[in-house]
């Protein structure tokens, strides 16, 4: 396994000043994926932006896991719709 793409959960929690329980709760709720490798828990660097967003929503706005899940799903849906709009604009441009 390529550990260069992984962040140790304990180090991440210290850096962001959060409890490890928050990471465990987010994993149990299905918002993030924790990787266990050689008895050490890791986060994939690809999740970093999403995890930072989750932490801001949780700490700054006091939004619970269910609310965060809804927000992330709505943002994903918004991105899909924007992509579809751009695709349709390009298709429409062929007829102009």
What is the strand tally? Answer: 3
The separation of the N and C termini measures 51 Å
What share of the residues lie within helices? 55-70%
Going by helix content, strand content and strand pairing, the class is alpha+beta
Extract low-pLDDT stretches. Answer: none
Radius of gyration, CA atoms, in whole angstroms = 18 Å
Number of helices: 4
- Would you list the SSEs in sequence order as H and E? EHHEEHH
Portion of residues in beta strands equals: 5-15%
The pLDDT mean sits at 93
* Major sheet size, sense and barrel closure: 3 strands, antiparallel
Q: Which term fits the overall shape?
A: elongated
Main-sheet strand order equals 1-3-2
Quick summary of this structure?
This protein has 96 residues and is an alpha+beta fold. Helix content is 64%, strand content 12%.
Give the secondary structure arrangement, pairings included:
Elements: E1 6-8, H1 9-16, H2 20-29, E2 34-37, E3 40-44, H3 48-61, H4 65-93
Antiparallel strand pairs: 1-3, 2-3
Task: Walk me through what this model shows.
The chain has helices at residues 9-16, 20-29, 48-61, 65-93; strands at residues 6-8, 34-37, 40-44. It has 96 residues and is α+β, with helices and mostly antiparallel strands. It has a three-stranded antiparallel β-sheet. The protein is elongated and about 60 Å long. The termini are far apart.
């Amino acid at each position: 396994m390529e550990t260069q793409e992984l962040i140790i959960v304990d180090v991440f929690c210290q850096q962001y000043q959060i409890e490890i329980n928050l990471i465990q709760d987010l994993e149990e709720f299905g918002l993030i994926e924790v990787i266990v490798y050689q008895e050490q828990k890791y986060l994939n660097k690809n999740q970093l932006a999403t995890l930072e967003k989750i932490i801001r929503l949780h700490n700054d706005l006091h939004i619970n896991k269910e609310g965060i899940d809804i927000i992330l799903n709505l943002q994903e849906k918004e991105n899909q719709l924007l992509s579809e709009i751009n695709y349709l604009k390009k298709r429409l441009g062929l007829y102009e």
